[in-house]
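Support request from a user on the community tier.

User writes: "When I paste my structure tokens into the form, the page sometimes reloads and wipes my input. The last time it worked, I copied everything first. Here is what I submitted, just in case something in the input itself triggers the reload:"
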């Protein structure tokens, strides 16, 4: 589904969005008050006309002082009766955010059950950059669809097909290195992690734009993670179709960059190391020592810490071009969820100006991120006795930080490096965010780029 607004129509019903305590439109008469409407966040009041039909509706925005708690509250409008509705927004409400909420509320994953969205349609609110909002929603819908698709239909081959389809849509160049060619191309850790699976591991390399600063985005693409020989318990394996959420978010971001025209002023490269971490005779083993593209050796102390291994080779490859900015997106550690929960991904960056731009943009566009430190004092934890690096330090503390430190070892050469430890999943339904796959960080990156790469 490609989200879009309905064309303007004289028959469109008015939808007034109102803050709690604000006066209601004169056209409503006493009905809203008599029906108990209090403008609580997401509350809807349908307005009858003289013949018993619909004359319009109110949608509550909640308490203005608590607006930060109600992200994308206008997505509740998806519960309105089918038809075309014309949103009327109060002064001070961010138009683009409200319009995006209306589109995000229409998302449904219906590949295996149900029918496509058939609910209300909305005209674009006045004062909105409609093309920009459509681009944001289109990128987010792509990310959600990819994450929500189970691994039997979203293995490495399928993810490559999705990447090729997007490259064709936006006019990007794409190259894919697969199976034994990974070894010939000096991408040994991607090969080691994925060699046991029925579908061969691969490195997807997409390029768009030919002028301006260089932006390289690396997305973790573990299409399913059993944990390898350090196999996960069943409960921990249930959501592992989402372990390619970094790659899905990178593709969603690429779609946003293309559709908003941001790709016209920069050289974009998206690198996706794509594997299944499977259990078979060819599985890499605990205790193995792998040699990376960069030449650093890595002792495998847990085969369930495979994401950082494939990212390392892709980061080393990306850094060889010395991009102005390199970003890794990965569903990497449970430690990040313990620290900050599912809604607030940590990010790591040594450059204060870049980090500040990302932090400000993330809050402005309601795509929250929280800066965490590359804490040099923990470097010794990722240095084992018999190799340069340890992929799974013992002790269980600061797991997200040590993973980020591990990745930083391979990003040297990039002008600036940002790592985002995302979750990629909405555990409970919220406005505009049904339970299931969700993009994190892409809109924040898009909003911050004009300040980071002017």
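"...and here is what came back when it finally went through:"
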């Amino acid at each position: 589904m490609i989200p879009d607004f309905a064309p303007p129509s004289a028959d469109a019903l008015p939808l007034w969005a109102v803050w709690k305590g604000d006066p209601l439109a004169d056209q409503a008469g006493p009905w809203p008050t008599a029906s108990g409407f209090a403008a609580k966040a997401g509350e809807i009041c349908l307005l009858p006309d003289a013949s018993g039909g619909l004359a319009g509706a109110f949608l509550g925005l909640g308490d203005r002082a608590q607006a930060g708690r109600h992200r994308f509250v206008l997505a509740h409008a998806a519960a309105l009766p089918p038809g075309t509705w014309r949103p009327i927004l109060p002064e001070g409400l961010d138009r683009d955010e409200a319009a995006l909420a209306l589109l995000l509320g229409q998302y449904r994953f219906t590949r295996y059950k149900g029918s496509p969205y058939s609910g209300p349609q909305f005209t674009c609110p006045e004062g909105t950059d409609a093309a920009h909002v459509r681009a944001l929603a289109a990128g987010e819908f792509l990310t959600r669809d990819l994450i929500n698709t189970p691994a039997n239909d979203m293995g490495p081959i399928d993810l490559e097909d999705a990447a090729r389809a997007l490259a064709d849509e936006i006019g990007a160049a794409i190259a894919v290195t697969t199976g034994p060619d990974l070894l010939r191309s000096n991408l040994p850790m991607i090969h080691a992690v994925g060699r046991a699976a029925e579908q061969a591991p691969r490195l997807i390399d997409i390029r768009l734009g030919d002028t301006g600063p260089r932006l390289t985005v690396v997305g973790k693409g573990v299409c399913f993670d059993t944990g390898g020989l350090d196999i996960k318990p069943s409960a921990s394996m249930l959501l592992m179709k989402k372990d390619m959420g970094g790659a899905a978010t990178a593709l969603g971001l690429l779609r946003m960059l293309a559709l908003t025209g941001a790709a016209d002023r920069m050289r974009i490269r998206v690198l996706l190391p794509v594997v299944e971490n499977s259990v078979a005779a060819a599985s890499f083993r605990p205790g193995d020592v792998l040699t990376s593209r960069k030449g650093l050796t890595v002792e495998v102390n847990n085969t369930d810490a495979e994401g950082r291994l494939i990212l390392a080779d892709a980061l080393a490859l990306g850094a060889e071009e010395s991009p102005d900015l390199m970003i890794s997106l990965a569903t990497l550690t449970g430690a990040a969820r313990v620290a900050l929960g599912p809604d607030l991904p940590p990010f790591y960056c040594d450059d204060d100006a870049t980090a500040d731009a990302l932090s400000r943009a993330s809050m402005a566009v309601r795509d929250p991120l929280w800066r965490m430190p590359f804490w040099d004092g923990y470097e010794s934890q990722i240095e084992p006795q018999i190799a340069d690096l340890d992929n799974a330090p013992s002790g269980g503390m600061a797991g997200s930080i040590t993973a980020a430190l591990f990745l930083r070892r391979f990003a040297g050469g990039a002008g600036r490096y940002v790592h985002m430890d995302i979750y990629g999943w909405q555990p409970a339904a919220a406005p505009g965010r049904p339970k299931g796959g969700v993009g994190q960080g892409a809109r924040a990156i898009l909003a911050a780029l004009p300040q980071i790469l002017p």
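Agent notes: The reload is a front-end session timeout and is unrelated to the input. The mean pLDDT is 96. Residues 348 and 372 are 5 Å apart (CA to CA). Escalated to web team.
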